């Protein structure tokens, strides 16, 4: 008996794989198609084609000025080494865009301008801020906006957290009350 | 064998795709704890793992008077005597880059 004849013939599945593997690999091109809807939705969100955020919370009146506040994503805070972070976007009112120097966001009323919270980055038409959300934040907390004008004036306004981000309230309720 | 290699490559690719959206921010962080001798030790840093030597850390009373003006040392820590008045700690790395720690949130020894 020759050596070739003695070799064990491959299983039908293995034979199919050996014969068609090159052609089957074309199917890999279909994999990115599954990710495309999310990719284009994210691209539109980042470009601002779908507005300033996934969910517009509303207008916050801050003295003579105002801003439109939106949740960047309609979800609870994301984990971060510095604690859970919630991303908000905002757009200043048309008339105040060139009057406001800085905009800050904080949970609860700020004690001072130094402790006014996180600062918004970006253009007046689309700014973003990552707000730390302590796990023991009460569900009836308020989101305070502090605006500093180029002329040195300061104005404050607030919006209930439940209105600004129902997803964050749901997240807090899920966490339970922390001491 | 080939199938296994292909599966592994696909898994690695998907893992990379999953992590690609993670934002690389560096938010300020500060932690304070009570240590022996009625003292409080605060450690500052940033969420990207970097330290904060030389960054301002003030201990401020509820009446907004600065009780202990300080800067973090080379080891990104600052130790100070616990004030008798009500206070909070403000890690101040610049406007909008602050961390406030109320005295109630400082873990006792």
UniProtKB/TrEMBL annotation, chain A:
InterPro entries: UCP029505. This is Thiamine pyrophosphate-binding protein.
TrEMBL record, chain B:
Keywords: Signal. It comes from Pseudomonas fildesensis. It comes from the Bacteria. This is Secreted protein. Residues 1-25 form the signal peptide. The lineage of its organism: Bacteria, Pseudomonadati, Pseudomonadota, Gammaproteobacteria, Pseudomonadales.
